[in-house]
Amino acid sequence: MQAKPSRRVYTLQPPRDGDKVQARARVVWLIRTGRLPRPSLVPCTDCGHVWSPGERRHEYDHYLGYAGAHHHDVQAVCTLCHSAREDQRAPDRRARSIEGLKRFSHARAQGPCVNCGQDIPPFRNGRCNSCRSYWIKHGVDRTSWSRRRPAQRLIHSSSPETPEATPQVPPRTT
Questions:
Q1: Would you give the distance in Å from CA 11 to the centre of its chain?
Q2: How confident is the model over 113-160, as pLDDT tens digits?
Q3: Are the C-beta atoms of 127 and 110 separated by less than 8 Å?
Q4: What is the overall mean pLDDT for the chain?
Q5: How far is CA 73 from CA 23, 40, 66, 95, in A?
Q6: How do the domains of the chain map onto residue ranges?
Q7: 60 forms bridges with which residues in the sheet?
Q8: What is the DSSP string of the chain?
């Protein structure tokens, strides 16, 4: 008995208004089933550019929007014309994105590192790069005494009841 080759079955859900992901998936489905040619095989609707290897690619544009009734209404355009169409639809889109980036520029802390106090520009959460990498690796801030020279570190005893448990500074050797 001969086995049948497996074939992937695409099932279409009812169209949802404004769903970009579903609209793009429907166009991909139309291309895979052969009902719509690949966009690079069709000349650009706006400028007439014919695709050849090494040149700008062509894309399908949902020129009527992403409403459920218009998921299959697409036009093949080159990337330059598609960008121009997007700019015509929302001319303030780039300005809004730049304004949004400016809005979050205050989130980066200014001044010295909150942990070690070094006067280098902090990376994230007010920490310099070395303090941040330690914090990511260990989950805690490294203490300030660990950055001192070994002769300046405090000696701690294991039991707090003994008189030796009080921190002592070792004599400095030269």
A1: 31
A2: 777 877 766 556 677 877 878 888 888 887 754 554 444 444 544 555
A3: no
A4: 75
A5: 10, 17, 9, 29
A6: 20-92, 107-145
A7: 76
A8: -PPPPP-----PPPP-TT-HHHHHHHHHHHHHTTSS--GGGS--TTT-PPP-TTS--EEEE-TT-S-GGGTT--EEEEHHHHHHHHHHH-TTHHHHHHHHHHHTGGGS--SS-TTT--SSPP-BTTB-HHHHHHHHHHSSPPPGGGGS-GGGSPB--S-TTSGGGS-BPPPPP-
Q: In whole angstroms, give the CA distance from residue 63 to residue 86.
A: 10
Q: CA angle at residue 128 from 150 to 113, to 5 degrees?
A: 80
d(CA 58, CA 135): 47
Amino acid identity of residue 89, one-letter, is R
- Kindly report the pTM of this predicted structure: 0.49
